[in-house]
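User: I'm curious whether this sequence folds into something compact or stays loose and floppy. Could you predict its structure so I can see for myself?
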Amino acid sequence: MAVSHSSINQNPELPIVSSQNLGWESLFIEEYQQPSGGMEFQAEVDPVIVLSLTPQPHRIYQRMGDRHHIGLYRRGDLCITPTGIPSSYHAEGDDHYLYVKISSTFLQQVAEEALELNPDRVEVMPAFQVRNPQLEQLLRLLQTELYQGGQMGRLYVESLANALVVNLLQDYSATHPHIAQFNGGLGDRKLLEVTRYIDEALDQDIKLADLAQLAEMSQSHFSRLFKQSMGLSPHQYLLQQRVERAKQLLKHTNQSLVEIALACGFDSHSHFARQFRQITGITPKAYRVN
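Assistant: Here's the prediction. I'll summarize afterward.
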């Protein structure tokens, strides 16, 4: 379900925008902008990452379990709270941040499949006011997708979520995990099965988990091996194939642009037009008349 403009709230006590109604299973994301003040939080069952979006630095007093921190938070600073730890903060100045809660089940799954860790012993370490360009970039991409109402589809969000957890555990876990290496890409049989499945399901919201299950491997491994084989990420390949299908329909049918957009798996005419032009350099209408 796409986020409508009414879902973007200006009440400082409510989230500006939320993933609540987007059906994202691995992540829950909200963006907040609040005046000076503080809050207390009970221990969460899922780890939380907070990305500072504040345009001007401001001082924050924080507590996480028995740890305390006072710092001048800037745009891009991260705070990581593990499961089972109560926390609180008090901000001196307007606070603007992205709140990201990661499903513990999903985190354990990625830890086991992508990093070969015992899922029952995975432990995210607490962190105050850290900088991590990789995590920040992934969170920014998720923020953009949040504002677009999940327009790019679940395959895109799941790919970002996998990368987010892998980076989080590599840099902020109690162990020192490594990414299991698989060389050579997908085998011919699996590659054919996956690409045929994509071709037959272009009008559907294809999930990364479904493609990985078809290839009989973890989502993280599948994404890496697919890119080795095709030179494109699964999401990029899916977009390419949707545009190719749209080209055929534009040239050989009288379907409207809206009908073609839905038949090719785009959630709206505007999304279709934007992606089509980004890949081909021209609009769908211009392509049809050429």
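Summary: The mean pLDDT is 87. Residues 76 and 137 are 9 Å apart (CA to CA).
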